[in-house]
């Protein structure tokens, strides 16, 4: 491979170098397309990556971590990472920094490392240091000689970044760290919310309020419980808010007990203090008594009752003939204890329900059945004649005969599967009605009944079917995964019985590459159609289908998500005071189905947590270093994903927040360390003063001894030189003994 300079980009496959200016220019300048990988979205700026200060560039252009220098292994193809180890600055670095997995607990963990390689004859000291991943403040421990350290008193469920400094014992120069670990302490259950309160808004609506715990400890949801019922009802609140509305069929006069818990991951806190509410005790209503029929004619009924003990503000009277459902009941309100209901059908059995109410609260009901007098209304005779089209049906019927000629008003009803009941579609005085806006090739059930002038009568019913429409969109479009790299597209014709051959056109949109393909299917009478289509990992596809008829209708779009490309694991990021950013991660496990596809890593940096308008940087191998991120950013968020040579991207890794003002991972002496240094300096100063005093005293002694020596005299009578033998000197002085000598011996005085 060819080594490229800092202003060039090394192509992944062609092994050539191109200028950084040619990256993401829409042209394949490398010949293998790697200079255009991951260049979308359009608002992203793509910058190639050279070796970082935490890496060493081999002569062949490969980047290796500086922790691999001088480790007695040839990590570079030419072995140049081991050639200058005598001169390297990395000889005193601790290496193989790791955490003991069994030691990780709620508030601490143990890390260990190996001493500098090949330096066993030297005495080293180590300084463990750590910071929270979201903080810029490094905290240094104490210098130790062991190769392990236990961190304690940490916060549970928190990411920490750990490193180790090295120095020679009794030396001030500290070797910078080259290895960092990101370690997460175990999670513990959070504290519950406090100050729970409940406010009643109406009969089926309350608002619960609370105060979050002081220490959030990774809380991601709350759970609100209340009882009765038993077991308690609960609702989950996933948003980090301080209030939540609950809709429930509460009963007035019942004591409800509310309490809450907090969740982080799968851990639930203890119960909060309960809050008890006597639900709307002033709205407790009792049923009426002695409900009875006062009178009944062919068109009206009068009923009466005794006032309830807790009567509320009035009474609701709900009534209907027995041959229609509760959906079409009618209601009248009164404040009296009797009511006359008019406009009823003759000869019909009516069901009356009477209940007290007070605002939104309703009490229990009492029921009574009453049959009106007179001849029952006739059912409408529906004819077999139909006029149907692809989207409409025209119904016909005869006017029913009654005791006298009547100008009837009719109601037309159609069954709605969604509500499992009939819905009124229209009112007419004619003996025909057209239902419109229907689905082609569908069977509809309908009813027709008289509704005026003598009340609502029994229904005549029937069914009708719309015609097949060649322009109608096919139904039940479905997309399923067919391993390893296909999806099955299936759908049904708009009608179960297709009268003649019809073709289809399938629209397949690649929503990642913004490319659309069309697949034509030959004409057929099959009502169920399916076929396979190849897909790509990381792809997102939108599929629609229509017939081959002119101006045919497209079906609703169905979206299919292909299996995702692997997510980048173990992302770690640090930001220094000068703004430089270092990001590392583990290699992804590339799917075997894509063994022939090449890929790049894309590092995304953004000022926004949602990674909008992110700046993208491509690299072919893990680790990334950026000297100068945009200075205008107040915060920096980092994430990494993979991009293959076809332009498909993997999911973003966890978003890493670097904050806004990171400081150097520098050695800072603590207060304890400063005290130790001060004591050491004081001891050294005392020793120096003592040495000086001893030197002065000894100098004076030597001076006195020399004077004694110099004052010696020459005895002319004896013809010999005579000197003191030392008896005149103090006994405690350590002067040397000088004995006399004869004239024939030379005298030398220094």
TrEMBL record:
Fibronectin type-III domain sequence ranges: 93-188, 192-283, 287-378, 381-471
Gene3D superfamilies with a match to the protein in the record: Immunoglobulins (2.60.40.10), Low-density Lipoprotein Receptor (4.10.400.10)
Protein name per UniProt: Sortilin-related receptor
SMART domains recorded: FN3, LDLa
S-S bonds: 24-39, 51-63, 58-76, 70-85
The encoding gene: SORL1_2
PANTHER family: FIBRONECTIN TYPE-III DOMAIN-CONTAINING PROTEIN, TENASCIN
Keyword terms, alphabetized: Disulfide bond, Membrane, Receptor, Repeat, Transmembrane, Transmembrane helix
């Amino acid at each position: 491979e060819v080594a490229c300079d800092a202003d060039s980009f090394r192509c992944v496959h062609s092994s050539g170098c191109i200028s950084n200016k040619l990256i993401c220019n829409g042209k394949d300048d490398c010949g293998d397309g790697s200079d255009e990988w991951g260049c979308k979205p359009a608002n992203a700026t793509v910058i190639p990556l050279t070796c970082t200060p935490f890496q060493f560039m081999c002569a062949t252009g490969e980047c290796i971590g500086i922790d691999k220098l001088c480790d007695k292994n040839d990590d570079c193809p030419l072995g140049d990472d081991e050639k200058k180890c005598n001169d390297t600055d990395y000889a005193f670095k601790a290496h193989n920094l790791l955490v003991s997995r069994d030691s990780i607990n709620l508030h601490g963990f143990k890390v260990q490392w190996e001493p500098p390689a090949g330096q066993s004859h030297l005495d080293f000291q180590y300084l463990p240091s750590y910071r929270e991943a979201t903080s810029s403040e490094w905290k240094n421990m104490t210098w130790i000689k062991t190769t392990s350290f236990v961190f304690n008193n940490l916060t549970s469920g928190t990411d920490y970044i750990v490193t180790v400094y090295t120095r020679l014992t009794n030396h001030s120069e500290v070797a910078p760290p080259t290895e960092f670990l990101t370690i997460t302490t175990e999670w513990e259950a959070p504290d519950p919310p406090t100050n729970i309160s409940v406010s009643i808004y109406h009969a089926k609506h309350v608002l619960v309020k609370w105060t979050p715990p002081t220490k959030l400890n990774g809380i991601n949801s709350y759970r609100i419980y209340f009882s009765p019922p038993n077991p308690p009802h609960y609702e989950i609140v996933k948003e980090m808010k301080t209030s939540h509305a609950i809709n429930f069929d509460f009963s007035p006069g019942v004591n409800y007990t509310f309490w809450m818990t907090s969740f982080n991951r799968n851990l639930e806190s203890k119960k909060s203090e309960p809050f008890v509410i006597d639900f709307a005790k002033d709205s407790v209503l009792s049923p009426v008594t002695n409900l009875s029929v006062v009178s009944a004619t062919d068109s009206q009924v009068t009923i009466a009752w005794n006032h309830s003990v807790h009567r509320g503000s009035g009474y609701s009277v709900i009534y209907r003939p027995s041959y229609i459902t509760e959906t079409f009941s009618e209601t009248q309100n009164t404040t009296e204890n009797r009511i006359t209901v008019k406009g009823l059908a003759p000869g019909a059995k009516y069901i009356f329900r009477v209940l007290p109410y007070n605002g939104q609260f309703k009490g229990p009901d009492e029921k009574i059945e009453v049959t009106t007098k007179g001849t029952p209304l006739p059912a409408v005779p529906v004819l077999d004649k139909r006029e149907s089209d692809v989207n409409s049906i025209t119904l016909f019927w005869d006017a029913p005969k009654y005791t006298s000629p009547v100008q009837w008003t009719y109601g037309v009803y159609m069954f709605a599967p969604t509500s499992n009941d009939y819905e009124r579609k229209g009112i007419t005085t004619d003996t025909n009605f057209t239902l419109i806006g229907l689905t082609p090739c569908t069977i509809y059930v309908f009813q027709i009944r008289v509704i005026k002038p003598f009340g609502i009568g029994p229904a005549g019913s029937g069914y009708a079917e719309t015609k097949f429409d060649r322009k109608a969109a096919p139904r039940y479009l479905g997309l399923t995964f067919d391993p390893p790299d296909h999806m099955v597209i299936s759908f049904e014709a708009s009608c179960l019985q297709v009268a003649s051959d019809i073709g289809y056109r399938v629209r397949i949109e690649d929503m990642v590459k913004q490319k659309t393909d069309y697949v034509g299917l030959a004409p057929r009478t099959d009502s169920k159609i399916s076929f396979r289509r190849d897909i790509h990992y990381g792809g997102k596809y939108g599929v629609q289908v229509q017939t081959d008829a002119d101006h045919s209708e497209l079906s609703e779009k169905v979206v299919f998500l292909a299996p995702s490309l692997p997510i980048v694991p173990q992302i770690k990021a640090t930001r220094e005071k000068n703004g430089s950013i270092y990001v590392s991660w583990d290699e992804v496990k590339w799917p075997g189905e894509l063994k022939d596809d090449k890929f790049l890593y894309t590092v995304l940096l953004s000022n926004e947590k949602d990674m909008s308008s992110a700046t993208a940087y491509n690299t072919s191998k893990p680790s990334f270093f950026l000297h100068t991120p945009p200075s205008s950013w107040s915060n920096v968020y980092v994430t990494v994903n993979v991009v293959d040579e076809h332009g498909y991207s993997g999911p973003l890794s966890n978003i890493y927040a670097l904050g806004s003002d990171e400081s150097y991972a520098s050695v800072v002496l603590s207060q304890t360390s400063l005290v130790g240094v001060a004591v050491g300096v004081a001891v050294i100063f005392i020793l120096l003063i003592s040495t000086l005093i001893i030197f002065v005293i000894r100098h004076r002694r030597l001076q006195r001894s020399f004077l004694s020596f110099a004052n010696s005299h020459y005895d002319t009578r004896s013809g010999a030189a005579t000197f003191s033998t030392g008896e005149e000197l103090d006994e405690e002085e350590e002067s040397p003994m000088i004995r006399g000598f004869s004239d024939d011996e030379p005298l030398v005085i220094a």
